[in-house]
Specification:
Length: about 120
């Protein structure tokens, strides 16, 4: 099986910073794109940032210039460095990864983490 485990969420004041981590483990052969999504209360889940296996990145307009996504392929881990946090960034943040795991019959299969809460106070 494959698991994604997020960490690093918490409570921070507006203008502060947090770093989220998401580690993938299990019978992994390769991880393609990885990403971060978020869901605020009463809203749909939205894309925050993605990164390909080669390091190409993409960001939601609302976080450009404030958030940075990165990954360590040797550790099967993706990070989200968040700076200049705003109250509207408050949400549960989920990581996502496209995983190829032939031993369990998964090919670029999307896995999700359990989510980590980020709360930004004004």
């Amino acid at each position: 099986q494959v698991q994604l485990v997020e960490s690093g969420g918490g409570l921070v004041q507006a203008g502060g910073s947090l770093r989220l981590s998401c580690a993938a483990s299990g019978s992994i052969f390769r991880i393609n794109a990885m990403g971060w999504y978020r869901q605020a209360p009463g809203k749909q889940r939205e894309l925050v940032a993605t990164i390909t296996s080669g390091g190409s990145t993409d960001y939601a307009d609302s976080v450009k210039g404030r958030f940075t996504i990165s990954r360590d392929n040797a550790k099967n881990t993706v990070y989200l460095q968040m700076s200049g946090l705003k109250p509207e960034d408050t949400a549960v943040y989920y990581c996502n990864a496209g995983v190829t795991a032939p031993l369990i019959g998964r090919y670029n299969y999307e896995y999700w983490g359990q989510g980590t809460q980020v709360t930004v106070s004004s």
